[in-house]
Amino acid sequence: MPLQMKLTAITLDCPDPLALAAFYQQATGLEPHPKLDADFAGLIGEGGLFIGFQRVDDYRAPHWPDQAVPQQFHLDFAVEDLDAAEARLLELGAGKPAHQPGKDRWRVFTDPAGHPFCLVRGSGNESA
Fold first, then answer.
1. DSSP state string for 103-126
2. Domain count, the chain
3. For the chain, which end, N or C, has fewer CB atoms within 10 Å of the first or last residue's CB respectively?
4. Which domain, by its residues, includes 122?
5. Considering the entire predicted model, what is its pTM?
6. pLDDT tens across the length of the chain (128 residues)
7. Do 120 and 72 have their domain in common?
8. Do 45 and 71 fall within a single domain?
């Protein structure tokens, strides 16, 4: 019988937890966790999913798609309008790598700390 586990949190290493939490809060509309500080910040998502951001000294950002500093994981976010979402994310400080393997199905971005993430059209069932 498989172990029944429920995902409750995802935590990203970064150099500035408050800044990265602010980026994702503005991008997603998720609510900030009431206990934020310079070493750890978080957002509360649907169903209680927690996205945390923890300070790491000497943080080295991934360089997607180069594997010298590998991405190790990425997040996917479903949106209705890829173009509108892209414009808003770029305003918020996201980067858009030149390598875009998803063609018209998804787009790869990097958050201000360098973590790659994808925007997918609609339900979010396709990913990089």
1. TTSEEEEE-TT--EEEEEETT---
2. 2
3. N
4. 60-128
5. 0.77
6. 665 657 688 999 999 999 999 999 999 999 999 888 999 999 998 888 899 999 999 998 888 788 888 777 778 888 989 999 999 999 999 999 999 988 788 899 999 999 988 998 875 444 44
7. yes
8. no
